[in-house]
């Protein structure tokens, strides 16, 4: 078990009397890129939120590196496992204030060099640091939000339809950075997507239908 990254055992989730997920069991091993697919409303986002601890299972267990998620300090867990979603919201402040937020909550200084490098990777000039978020386009906001998630290198990146509201150009920029993270810095990715190009990159495709899972690849 300790060699697995995540292990789900008969995970279920109920909300307002509805069984949204049922009996979800699978193991994610360390070198895998997992993509969750399936029809709209089938429970994919809910599953990713359970893994990201934004929600708690109402039945079953989730283990991270062999330890029950309920027994892991949430602050420590968030340092390793980063959840990034479609239309991630930035604070209504400057780009720098947003990018320094992860350091502020850890009472550390802002790593301007890292911010600069990551911004460059998503084709945003350093001068944007002093820009107000409300001056940015939708695609720029999503790219800045991704940079904010990566200011501390996560071990696992949970991506929930992060490119679905982006045009082709922005999508390519975001995917390129995610790919680099996976390659050079060994970040593991679990993603929910409808995009075929992203699905093709999966080493494993897990399909969720009506709250139940089918493994397809
Ligand atoms: N907190 C909640 N309370 C009640 N119902 C919920 C809650 N969260 C999700 N649902 C319902 O659970 C089902 C699964 O939602 P989920 O967002 O996980 O689907 P999805 O597969 O990610 O869909 P999409 O591809 O459209 O994003 C939907 O029917 C949704 O309405």
UniProtKB/TrEMBL annotation:
- Keywords per UniProt: ATP-binding, Cell inner membrane, Cell membrane, Membrane, Nucleotide-binding, Phosphate transport, Translocase, Transport
GO MF annotation, one: ATP binding
GO biological process, alphabetically ordered: phosphate ion transport
Query: Which InterPro entries does the entry mention?
Result: AAA+_ATPase, ABC_transporter-like_ATP-bd, ABC_transporter-like_CS, P-loop_NTPase
**Pfam families assigned:** ABC_tran
**Domain ABC transporter: residue ranges:** 6-217
The record ties this protein, via SMART domains, to: AAA
Q: Superkingdom, according to UniProt?
A: Bacteria
Q: What is this protein called?
A: ABC transporter ATP-binding protein
Q: What is the lineage of its organism?
A: Bacteria, Bacillati, Bacillota, Bacilli, Lactobacillales
């Amino acid at each position: 078990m300790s060699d697995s990254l995540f292990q789900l055992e008969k995970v279920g989730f109920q909300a307002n009397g509805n069984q949204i997920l049922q009996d979800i069991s699978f193991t994610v091993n360390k070198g895998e890129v997992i993509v969750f697919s399936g029809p709209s409303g089938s429970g994919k986002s809910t599953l990713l939120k359970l893994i990201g601890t934004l929600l708690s299972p109402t039945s079953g267990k989730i283990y991270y590196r062999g330890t029950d998620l309920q027994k892991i300090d949430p602050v420590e867990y968030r340092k390793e496992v980063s959840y990034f979603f479609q239309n991630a919201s930035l604070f209504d402040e400057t780009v720098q204030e947003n990018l320094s937020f992860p350091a502020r909550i850890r009472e550390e200084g802002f790593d301007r060099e890292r911010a600069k490098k990551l911004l460059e990777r998503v084709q945003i000039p350093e001068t944007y640091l002093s820009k107000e978020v409300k001056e940015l386009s939708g695609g720029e906001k999503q790219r800045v939000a991704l940079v904010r998630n990566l200011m501390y290198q996560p071990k696992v990146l949970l991506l929930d339809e992060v490119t679905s509201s982006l045009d082709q150009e922005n999508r390519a920029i975001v995917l390129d950075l995610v790919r680099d993270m996976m390659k050079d810095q060994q970040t593991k990715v679990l993603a929910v997507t409808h995009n075929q190009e992203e699905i093709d990159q999966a080493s494993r495709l897990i399909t969720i239908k009506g709250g139940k899972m089918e493994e397809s690849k």
